[in-house]
């Protein structure tokens, strides 16, 4: 179920982090619009089935995400978030990996009042990416 906080993008972010850390790819994917774009690797946008499959595969590595809302700008049904985040996961070779960055995300409110990601760009400015 998507976050249905009337104005609360901060609560939505907390809900997203909990859902992401649960490892349930279907639940996380429900927090995105049908046509959402995700730029999880700088310069490599993913949409549709490719985005959903990439997320499901990544979640098998049991990543742990933390995120703090740095700034938000909300209009009636659109929000721009700037987010400080960090993530630890097991790498493909079995070693622990850590990534962090400053994200820029665009959310839209759907007809039910739930916030959903239209653009998810954890490396909002790729120069801010730290591995």
Automatic annotation (TrEMBL):
InterPro entries assigned to the protein according to its UniProt record, in alphabetical order:
NTF2-like_dom_sf, SnoaL-like
List, for all copies, the residue spans of the domain called SnoaL-like. 16-102
* Pfam families documented for this protein: SnoaL_2 (PF12680)
Q: SUPFAM superfamilies attached here?
A: NTF2-like
Q: What is this protein called?
A: SnoaL-like domain-containing protein
